[in-house]
Amino acid sequence: MNCNSIIPHIFSIIISCQTVIDLYTRECLGICVGQNLRSTEVAEMLNSIALRRPLP
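and the corresponding structure tokens:
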């Protein structure tokens, strides 16, 4: 039996992913994942990265 015929609504979820990558070291500094990302969530992620990492 095909999974799509049993539960078609599971595969229609859209997920947004905001990644922050250091271009010099190619290190992933942070990932913010959700169905809809608000600007406050992205700003909170950037602030947490700024607190953990020293300024260049």
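(Above: one complete record from the training split.) The mean pLDDT is 80.
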